[in-house]
Amino acid sequence: MFKRNLWKIALTAFIVVWAVSSILPLKDTEFNDYIVAEVGANNAEFEALMAQAQARVDAGTAASVFVGLKQIGAEQRIDLTQYFPQVRLESSLRNVEKRNAILLDYLLKESKGKLQLGLDLKGGVSFMLEVADEGVSGDVAEYEREENLAKAIEIIGERVNQFGVAEPVIRPVGTNRIEVQLPGISTKDNPEVVDNVKKPARLDFRRVHPRLSPLNTPANQTPPGYELMIEEREGRDGSIQDVPYFVKRLPEMTGESIDVAFATTDEFGRFKINLRFTDEGAERFADVTGEIAQESREGGQLAIVLDGKLYSAPRVSTRINGGSAEITGTFTQREAIDLANVLNNPLDVELIVREQNEVGPSLAADAIQSGVDASEIAVILVAVFMIAVYTIGGAFAVISLAVNILIVLGALASIGATITLPGVAGIVLTVGMAVDSNILIFERIREELIAGKSLKAAFLSGHDKVLSTILDANITTLITSSLMIAFGTGPVQGFGVTLTIGVFSTVFCALIVTKLLLEFFIEGDIIKKFPMTLPSKVPNFDYLKFARPAFAISWLIVIIGIGMVVYKGHRIYGIDFVGGDQVTLTFTDRDAFESGDVRDTLEGTGIGEVNPIFQNDFDGENETLQVQVPVGHGDDVLPTLQAAFPGAGFESIGQSSIGPSIGAEIQWNALMSLGLAIVGILLYVAFRFEVGFGVGAVTSTVHDILMTVGIFVLFDRQFTAPMVAAILLIAGYSINDTIVVFDRIREELKSNPDMKLRDVINTAINRVFTRSLLTSATTFLASLALFIWGGGVINDLAFTFLVGVITGTFSSIFIASPIFFWWHKGDRKHVERHQDVKPTYEWTGSSRASE
């Protein structure tokens, strides 16, 4: 047995070790301490440099030691890599400043914990960008300003996504400003972040003068129509050489001809940017290079100019028909990637930085702690429940669950995901759903034991029979999560990534880890019994008898809920969707209040959603409180807080309107993800089962989504950004439960060739009813813990799942199954014409299960 499972043991061990190494260290190390500890040579010299860098920080000439070291290296031409011989850089990169930048960026990244926290838990950087007014006026200017603002927000969102699976806040403020908040990033250590986000991208391809050069032309005699431009080239010793050219002012073609840009390396390991043209761009590029090649025997040069800077002027000796080009230069890897990102998302309006601050966690310390506590309680409740019901099998499930959580966290850390409190809740709820696969296995073993098989035979037979069910249920969930990643942005995409990882880790743990544990203990005769605190008798209830009234009542509730959605209109949306008012306050006594107190006080007046955020300038001397409230309630903030906290010394220094952080595009992408997921589920189920099953599955999924939304609104709750993903997650849960029922119906059709379709469906539901109830119980317990002990958005997420769990279980029995029955007009012959349901037989042992 050991030899047969050696590969499983080795694979599991490898994945566990990888996951642990991926999430360690858990916490950040202070950069100053980390870099000193990492010095591998000439410690005394480096300590002197650290003292100089700290002196610059104290004098205010450097924002941090990180920046101070960069400045010292550049000014004194010191190669800092000599102190860190263990960090290997490209030998071809000789420029000292770039070597130092790569080294310090690497050390800064290594000093951070692998699991970075989001804005709500840790805070980050906040900056306000203003769209430059180019002098136009009137109605045209207003229209152009709105268009430029919307385009800039879209492009900034695409650029920010390059930082990883984060959950940034990007929203319009007033008519010409954009607020950007990036979690877990400090501009003290990463001053280039703001520049990369707001960087324009005017790309030109211009001709270089075919005969004249600044080197052989008298000063101040630039040819008409040309301008003097300098290309920086890195010498063999790392020095920068200036090479002048006369470059035509008007471009032959612009960046609009570019289809895609990406960073890569040449045969010497030097970084460059490859460009691929559109069809029209490729044709124009061929014409331009053909004309330049004919200028002389040696050909000519075509300059690549980005935002007025000459990056390269490659020689053209023949017509180029390949539809691609490249930008070469002395790029670091980060510079090449950033440049490619900018070219892919060209921002053709100038953005000016008006404010730049460090923001504190958007959740109060007590709210964060309550959310963490609720998550811990939820996991403990699920574990206790599994052990109480399945005893030793439950213990195996808990071990498998621990491996599952470890894999999910390791995968998130390895891709640089940012962990938010809603993200933690999403992981917890995924854990509740992940137990489902173990319950499926245990329930099939129990069923085989009741049939009279030995423990070993029951284990082998039960596990084999449930394999296709586990795969089908998780594949349909994977369809939903994949579309969330492909078409979603922000929290939708983040939830999609977490759910996708959860699907793969769940399947691995169920089919490898849990099976390995069961096989070792059962086939090794270590355990003789598999006790479960469940009744052995299968229920015999006629579910289809109540299908019509249950169907009618549930859809009536759906109609009432959707009617309330229509009646309330935009009032169902929170600030994330419709924007609001933002009031900036100063205060004299920070100890007189907490952000949680501010939230509770204002929400107690019936204002609605309230988001208080502390904000610091970079010297740490001026701290302000930003309070975001629904539109029209900004004037109520100051008097309410002054009355509630008279000793705090609140004063208002500004009020502005803020736009939504969840724009129309994100909403549309979420709806498109949902629509495509439904179509994908229909096609998959129809392919794996048949059309009747697919129609039932889709109808029940739509029913669950509409009912969850309706009940959410009926209880006077507002939709926030994470709720979009939560609704999509409900779709995944719903189809998961439905697939299990359908898989059993298909099995019973094959096993009972003479049974009527009505009896087949009732038998199948009765046989999986315990499993459905137990799966719902585990997810319900996790949701209930988050609902009771979690606050704010955690409470909303938990409420959504409480409703979704109930309606998902209900719909698989009273919506999906009856629709399948009615689709085939209650006649199994109609099913048999569309599906292979021939009966199957198997040998059954005579031994009895141990009691």
From TrEMBL:
Coiled-coil residues: none
Gene3D superfamilies membership: 3.30.1360.200, 3.30.70.3400, Multidrug efflux transporter AcrB transmembrane domain (1.20.1640.10)
Domain of life of the source: Bacteria
Keywords, in A-Z order: Cell membrane, Membrane, Protein transport, Translocation, Transmembrane, Transmembrane helix, Transport
Ranges annotated as spanning the membrane: 377-396, 401-419, 499-522, 543-567, 666-686, 693-715, 721-742, 773-791, 797-823
Chief location bin: membrane
UniProt topology in membrane: Multi-pass membrane protein
Protein export membrane protein SecD/SecF C-terminal domain span: 350-517, 650-825
Location in or out of the cell: Cell membrane
SecDF P1 head subdomain domain location: 242-344
Pfam families: SecD_1st (PF21760), SecD_SecF_C (PF02355), SecDF_P1_head (PF22599)
Sequence ranges assigned to domain Protein translocase subunit SecDF P1 in this UniProt record: 150-209
Assembly information from the UniProt record: Forms a complex with SecF. Part of the essential Sec protein translocation apparatus which comprises SecA, SecYEG and auxiliary proteins SecDF. Other proteins may also be involved.
Family stated for the protein in its record: Belongs to the SecD/SecF family. SecD subfamily. Belongs to the SecD/SecF family. SecF subfamily.
Primary role: Part of the Sec protein translocase complex. Interacts with the SecYEG preprotein conducting channel. SecDF uses the proton motive force (PMF) to complete protein translocation after the ATP-dependent function of SecA.
HAMAP family assigned to the protein according to its UniProt record, in alphabetical order: SecD_B, SecF_B
NCBIfam families in the cross-refs: 2A0604s01, secD, transloc_SecF
Protein name: Multifunctional fusion protein
Species of the source: Actomonas aquatica
